[in-house]
TrEMBL record:
It comes from Chondrus crispus. InterPro entries: CDPK_Ser/Thr_kinases, Kinase-like_dom_sf, Prot_kinase_dom. This is Serine/threonine protein pseudokinase. Keywords: ATP-binding, Kinase, Nucleotide-binding, Serine/threonine-protein kinase, Transferase. The keyword Ubl conjugation does not apply. GO terms for molecular function: ATP binding; protein serine/threonine kinase activity. The keyword Nucleotide-binding applies. It holds the Pfam family Pkinase. Residues 109-366 form the Protein kinase domain. Transmembrane segments: none annotated.
Length: 422
């Protein structure tokens, strides 16, 4: 396994360089002091004066200007700055060293439109400069410490990245880059939308079984490599098409970590109760059983259109999980007993008795459904839901359509019915 370009950048000892530049090309030009330390360029008015500005060359464009000895710096959102080296020889030395340390994501990938924003940063559409392959570039601000720890782990032990590159049910990570302020995760580009866009009402069981097969196969692959996802929710499941039925993939980076290092991820956020196993709510170690619980919650929501548990605080949530789920609502009348049995087992409050992802795939629900699903029947059900005036119109943007995950092609907000038409 190897990254496409990320690990080709030389680490080596940090480059150090300093010297005077002129701010203007005149006899009485104003002198400025530049210091290059690794990829960090510092600008001062005096050699030992206070720092005026500092930038990371891996996130800064620079080039030789049209005038003799001219170096042009283009920092993000700031007017280009021209500086003049004392001699052409000095300019060549500076330019060569700056080029050496600047190799990064911008050298290999072209950034185009901003596709969305997540809690960790910004998503851009992009393409590989070499072969023009479309990609999604996920920018992670280092201020978000939990994800930063995970990505440091991923760069040190590439098992997590490797797992994304070897299974069809997991969004493939193409590259990883790091600057002083950000991480860049380059992934395959998927345009179908996140699963959260599809959960406004129940989905046909034949559709759900195919989606759950993809999700559980992805978890089975991660778990077989001693990796716990740790944050499986509708936003971390993406669809390969805007039309049902469709395949889905797991976004495996984020909270994913090697099982032995799961404790690095800290406690759970209680913002989305329905995805959390009770042991996670109690701030215990995340395990493969926690992932199975989260998958069971997704299965419940896809089949019923409802959350399995509703609570306003930690104690109430734990009490709900202890009582177990209910499948007495009318919406469950047409659901098979095998599906009800499996979702009950996956959402058991005792982690030790929950089935593994492999056990789920070997359950009667999957065994008895192979070859039994009628595509025409599923399509009829989708058309019936489309014609229902109560069908909810779902928005594919609203911050949910983002790269590596799911990209919206238009800046305007386009809405689609459950048939994913137009």
């Amino acid at each position: 396994m190897s990254l496409r370009y990320g690990e080709t950048v030389e680490a080596g000892p940090p480059t150090r360089l300093c010297g005077w530049f002129e701010r203007h090309l005149t006899f009485w030009g104003v002198h400025r002091w530049l210091e290059l330390n690794g990829s960090t360029l510092t600008y001062r008015h005096r050699e030992h004066g206070p720092v005026v500005w500092i930038c990371d060359l891996r996130e800064t464009q620079f080039f030789a200007g049209s005038n003799p000895c001219e170096l042009v710096l283009c920092r993000n959102g700031i007017e280009p700055l021209s500086l003049f080296a004392p001699t052409l020889k000095d300019l060549k030395i500076w330019f060569a060293q700056m080029k050496k340390v600047s190799d990064g994501v911008h050298d290999f990938y072209h950034f185009s439109a901003k596709a969305g924003r997540t809690r960790y940063g910004v998503i851009h559409l992009g393409c590989d400069k070499k072969d023009q392959e479309d990609v999604a570039i996920y920018t992670v601000e280092k201020g978000y410490l939990p994800l930063q720890k995970v990505l440091i782990l991923a760069k040190r032990d590439l098992a997590i990245v490797e797992a994304t590159q070897t299974h069809d049910s997991i969004v493939r990570v193409v590259d990883l880059f790091e600057s002083s302020m950000r991480f860049y995760i380059v992934t395959e580009l998927i345009n179908g939308g996140t699963l959260s866009s599809f959960l406004a009402q129940p989905l046909p069981e034949a559709i759900v079984i195919d989606m759950m097969a993809d999700i559980l196969q992805g978890l089975q692959h991660l778990h077989s490599r001693e990796i716990v996802h740790g944050n499986l929710d509708p936003e971390s499941i993406v669809c390969l098409s805007r039309r049902l039925p469709c395949r889905v993939k797991i976004v495996a980076y984020g909270n994913a970590a090697a099982r032995r290092d799961v404790r690095l991820l800290g406690g759970a956020s209680l913002k989305n109760w329905q995805q959390l196993a009770p042991e996670v709510v109690c701030f215990q170690r995340r395990t493969t059983a926690s992932d199975v619980f989260a998958a069971g919650s997704l299965m419940y929501r896809m089949l019923s259109g409802m959350n399995p548990f509703k609570a306003n605080n930690e104690a109430a949530y734990l009490a709900c999980v202890s009582r177990g789920i209910s499948v007495e609502d009318n919406v469950w009348d047409g659901i098979s007993n095998e599906a009800k049995s499996l979702v009950h087992r996956m959402l058991d409050d005792d982690a030790s008795v929950r089935p593994s992802a492999s056990d789920c795939l070997n359950s009667a629900w999957f065994r008895d459904s192979i070859g039994d699903a009628d595509p025409a029947e599923s399509r009829d059900e989708i058309l019936r839901m489309q014609s229902d005036p109560k069908t909810v119109i779902m928005d594919f943007e609203q911050g949910r359509s983002f790269g590596g995950h799911a990209i919206s092609r238009n800046k305007k907000v386009d809405t689609y019915s459950l048939s994913y038409g137009n």
